[in-house]
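User: Some background: our group keeps a shared notebook of sequences we're curious about, and every so often someone picks one and asks for a predicted structure to add to the entry. Today it's my turn. The entry only has the sequence so far, pasted here. Could you supply the structure so I can complete it?
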Amino acid sequence: MTAPRLEIDLGKIHHNARTLVGQLAGRDISITGVTKAALGSPEIAGAMLRAGVSALGDSRIENLKAMRLARVPAPMTLIRTPMLSQADQVVAHADLSFNTELDVISKLSSAAQKARRTHGIVLMVELGDLREGIMPGHLENTVRQTLRFPNIVLKGIGTNLACRSGVSPDTRNMAELSALAESIDVIFGPMLDIVSGGNSASLQWALSGADTGRINNLRLGESLLLGCEPLHRQPIEGLYTDAITLIAEVIESKVKPSQPWGKIAQTAFGEKPPATVRGRIAQTILAIGQQDTDPCGLHPPPGIEILGASSDHLIVDSGGCHLPVGSEIAFQLNYSALLRAMTSPFVAKVMKVSAETATRRKAGDHDRRPGRTRRAPRHGRSESDRNPPPAHP
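Assistant: Of course. Here's the predicted structure to add to the notebook entry:
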């Protein structure tokens, strides 16, 4: 099988999504499954939809278009403020878009009139993370102006936290969003179907037992794909953290000094190599690099340490384990590494279902959660990898 590759277990993604759908349903919160880290994969979108997510969201209209062309049957939301230059495409391929600028909404209105359709709008509110959002004091006027545009329907409000500045969703800022929703309904009449309380970073708050107020939707990507929460990157109990694994192939395996020699300047990426004094080491090079993923977001098996990376080489110290040329190493990866690997045309994407989740499907046990957090095999490949079950959950 080709390498490097992402091995994507659709059954585990389905399990993660179904588990969170069930937990949040008890809090009257629906899930928009975010596909941007999956590059709009129809297979991954399908696994989320079969698990019960109510809609799909992506920050790139190209990904939404790809899912439309693949006939993925779901309401679709552009979760980044649209570019003026893409207004026609947004109206054509998204049912809903997140907005902060009246000029953009005006252009969407014109595009919607031309296409003879309506387009839904969610107004994003700034609550402290200082990424996108209308300042709360300006929200009422923005609502008033939005309601004047033909072929535009105001569907809700939302916010984004934790992405730029790491501001955590909590009782205070979530209560403020709820209060803003109540205020809009009082002033303009009941109209807000959606109050979107953020991304996977909002899970801890949403499941804490706190009063959720008007919040009735979360946009989840990282938690469904990687089974962890973004605030502290801790595994979420009952979810798989190994639904997606990055496999890289060894192209060189030699014993070398641990320190470079000669006059030292910057590396290819403008850094100075760290001082490493450990004598001679078992240095292994894998055919993957900065162009394919974020090396800082890769988690190697025990006994293997990542030493550095260039554009297309990843250098590791394999310790006491000799890794022959042609062998493979399986890495777990964080959101940053996943995002870049999914985007790289040089990383193959292999959809599969592990033997474990395939057995559960046959037994009809879709809701059973793992007893503990599962991680991928640390060295080589598992028996289910060598004999993959069917590719669709």
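Suggested note for the entry: The chain is about 30% helix and 20% strand. The chain has two domains: 10-226, 244-349.
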